[in-house]
Each structure stands twice: as C-alpha cells, then as structure tokens.
Amino acid sequence: xxxxxxxxxxxxxxxxGNEILKQNLVxxxxxxxxxxxxxxxxxxxxxxxxxxxxxxFIEKDKNILLNIYHNTIDEFFDDQYGLHFTDLWYNVxxxxxxxxxxxxxxxxxxxxxxxxxxxxxxxxxxxxxxxFWDPLKSMRYLSLExxxxxxxxxxxxxxxxxxxxxxxxxxxxxxxxxxxxxxPRITISFNAIVTLYGDERxxx
Length: 204
Fold this sequence. Notes:
- The chain is α+β, with helices and mostly antiparallel strands.
- The chain has one domain (11-197): Jelly Rolls.
- Helices cover 17% and strands 33% of the residues.
- The chain has helices spanning 18-31, 56-60, 62-73, 137-140; strands spanning 11-14, 48-49, 81-95, 99-102, 114-121, 131-133, 154-155, 163-168, 173-175, 180-197, 200-201.
- Strands 1, 2, 3, 5, 8, 10 and 11 form a 7-stranded antiparallel beta sheet that branches. A 4-stranded antiparallel beta sheet has the order 4-9-6-7, with no helix packed on it.
- Strand 10 and strand 11 (200-201) form a beta hairpin.
- The chain is globular, with a radius of gyration of 18 Å.
- The mean pLDDT is 87.
C-alpha cells in the first residue's frame, strides 16, 4: 500500500467572461504603466506592477472583479466558505521581465491563507507560466525519495488565457524571464483570508 500524505494542493479553473474583462481592462492597465514603480523589496528587471500603489480604476472595479472570481472560486471549495480579500493588484510583463521566488505570507498584520493569479492576457506560445517550489525541498536533502514518489522540486502548470489559480500563500513561486513581445502578459493577483469553512468560523 502506498499513500500520499500532507499534500499541497493548487487549484486551477477558468474565469467566465475573460474576453469581456480583457477588452475592458487591458488598455487601462497599459495606459497606467508609466506611473508604476517597482516595489523596493522586489527583485526583478522592469516588471510593471500596481502592488501597494493606488490605481483608481482597478479599485473602482474591485468588487465587480471579485464577484466574477467568486463563480470560479466556488469550484475550489468542497464545503461552505467565506473569504476576506486583503489585496488586489496587476502585473504587466512585456519585455523579458521576470519575478524572483517569493511567497505571499507578508506579516501577521496583513497575512493571507490563499493567493490567486488570474491570467487576464496570456499567450502560452509567448509567455512563461509561474513555477511553484516544493516547500519541503530543503528537508528532502536530509532524506531519500524513492523513484516511484515522482517527487520534483518545481511544479509548472499548463496555463491558458483566462485561467485562475488558487494556492496556499506560503507556497513559494516565481516567474521566469519571458520573451520580448508585443503581446503583454497581464495578470491580476489577490490574496484572501478564510473566515468560514464548513461550520467553523475563523477569526482574523
């Protein structure tokens, strides 16, 4: 008998109406890029991000976006749930940009349970998917994995435009350098705290 224990789960599905969202959001996002600055603690080339930067149009559409995402997120949970969203931002990759390995744990003041990436504008022939890193990779160096465990350090999902990923916020991930292209890779990311799961209410 063989059992997988302590699994790490990544959830993936599609956002309904992505083409309409793309038509309404891509140009305002691109128009705002001249005003964006790379956060001081990010290691990257020249990724354009609204993280921790006020953008009126994305804030205005925030509730509409989150309501649309709820339809997809419903597929991920196997019991009744409640979420409190803590952040929402967008990233633009267009000229070979990358982002370093990081997680979304932040601090005790602004922590989250799950993180999300919506691939609003994405061409699988031009753009790079994120890479997720095994959280136990350091521990595995002190042990031995059998060949049948099929255990690797990195998981790379196959991404289509319009996909939404949900993953534990502690899971480290990165975006490898992409091609220089006229097609922008635009993602919308957000974090959430679980306030209800099943009959259990959680305090945050």
